[in-house]
Amino acid sequence: MNKRALIKKIVERLREELEVYFRAAQAARTEATHEQSKAENKYDTRGLEASYLARGQSKQAAEIQGSIAAFEKLDARKFGEAEPVDVGAFVELELNGEKAAYFIGPRAGGTEVIHDKREVLVITPQSPLGEQLIGRKQGDVLKLKLAHAQSQCRVTKVI
């Protein structure tokens, strides 16, 4: 597996999201400052609501920029079979005969990309699954708490 290519795809996906937030924030800023958004009475809050929306979208854009920077600095080292899972690891889990692929990232949990014709989900060490995976090794069996049930899964790969 080419981990550098996987990280590059994650960064590209984040850049796409960033562009969407930039455009949305700009549209909300324009709406907030437009003459028609001027309050007609004390109950008219269109301009204020648009400014709150622009601020929220700008904060999200800044968060994504931070994630991009973190992934660009991330070492694409290969983990050995006996090495524990940590940030930068590609992890494959098997649960009930199904395999799922995860990348332990420094940020941007929930980002999904297609790499080598399979879906890879970015999770962080702070996520419930990430907390359970950090420190585990290839071949380990873990009891996952999913919703209100526990399931056993096996770590089949750590790269």
Treating each run of at least 4 consecutive H or I residues as one helix, how many helices?
3
Number of DSSP E strands:
6
Kindly state the percentage of residues in helix: 40-55%
From the alpha-carbon coordinates, what is the Rg to the nearest angstrom?
Answer: 20 Å
Low-confidence stretches: none
Give the biggest beta sheet. Answer: 6 strands, mixed
**What proportion strand?**
15-25%
What is the first-to-last residue Cα distance?
8 Å
Query: What's the number of structural domains?
Result: 2
| Spatial strand arrangement across the major sheet | 3-4-2-1-6-5
Instruction: Estimate the mean pLDDT confidence.
Output: 90
Order of SSEs:
HHEEEEHEE
Q: What class would the helix/strand composition place it in?
A: alpha+beta
Q: What general form does the structure show?
A: elongated
Q: How would you characterize this protein structure?
A:
- The structure is a single chain.
- This protein has 159 residues and is α+β, with helices and mostly antiparallel strands.
- The protein has two domains: 3-73; 90-158, Chitinase A, domain 3, CATH 3.10.50.30.
- 41% of the residues lie in helices and 25% in strands.
- It is built from three helices and six strands; from the N terminus they run ααββββαββ.
- It has helices at 3-33, 46-73, 128-133; strands at 90-95, 98-104, 112-115, 118-123, 141-146, 149-158.
- Strands 3-4-2-1-6-5 form a six-stranded mixed beta sheet.
- A hairpin with a 2-residue loop joins strand 1 and strand 2 (98-104).
- Helix 1 (3-33) packs antiparallel against helix 2 (46-73).
